[in-house]
Amino acid sequence: MDRIVNGIARAVFVFLYLPIAAVIVYSFNAAGTNTRFEGLTLQWYAELFQDGALMQTLRTSAVVAVLSATVATVVGIMFALGMARYRGRGKGGLIALIALPLVVPEIVLGVALLSVFSATKVPLGITTLVLGHLIVSLPLATLVLMSSAAMLDPSLPEAAADLGCTPWQTFVRVYFPLLRPAVIAAWLLSFTTSFSNIVMSTFLSGVGSTTLPLRIYSSLKTGLTPSINALGALLILLTLVLVLAVGVTQMRRILVDSRS
Fold it and tell me: Could you tell me if 29 and 89 lie in one domain?
């Protein structure tokens, strides 16, 4: 039985990481196609940084993801702290409303937003992309932060006030340090969701605001170039560095707290 479980676990890991390994390997492929391998080269990395259109879509995706993730995290913090202190009726309804976009098909939300922007004559661009991605990322960030805010001691505001803290000082010196791991997790989750979003971007992107996923999707018609593999390999490396940095920081904090 243990051998079967171990075999299934290994098969799952191979299934998960084999595509990632393939992207990295083919980013060094000397052939101009992904159908065969003809040796190693750094040519595609050089061509990647010379492709102005592709780099522009990367910048657009990064800007939209940073803005939507930041706004989602800030609003999520306020909502999470408010719900942690709220004891009135209708709390479940408010939580259901914030989580509603997660159960509504994203294509429905995209069509609805496009109709609203068209009716109000709002030009499609970076602003509409941020608003659209915010609808998707805000519930995720809020739910992550709510789970951490619910575990905070409800007497913290009174204790901080007794020590002379203003509400802002209470947030900065008490709440935020306790919520920092959840804030980082919420921001990274929102950033990743926005950066890889394609449904909302399809409906809400305008001229000059094409995102990277849309550019890659459009390239499927003519065939993906090895430069896309090179870009994917760099994004994988950046993600790995961020995950390791966050993990090392959290581990150091845990070790310091355990010693103290």
Answer: no
128 and 177 in a single domain? The answer is yes
* Long-range pairs of 48-54 with CB within 8 A, sequence gap ≥ 24: 48/227, 48/230, 48/231, 48/234, 51/227, 53/215, 54/212, 54/215, 54/227, 54/228, 54/231
pTM tops 0.90: no
Mean predicted confidence (pLDDT) in 56-84: 91
d(CA 26, CA 130) in angstroms, rounded, equals 33
Identify the CATH number of the domain in which residue 200 sits.
1.10.3720.10
Statement to judge: residues 142 and 36 lie in one domain:
no
Residue 40 β-bridge partners: 29
Instruction: Examine the domain organization and report whether 111 and 2 are in the same domain.
Output: no
Does one domain contain both 208 and 103?
Answer: yes
Q: Binning pLDDT at 50, 70 and 90, where does residue 259 land? A: low
- The b/e string for 165-195 (b: 16+ C-beta within 10 A; e otherwise) is beeeebbeebbeeebeebbbbbbbbbbbbbb
Range of the domain at 180: 53-220
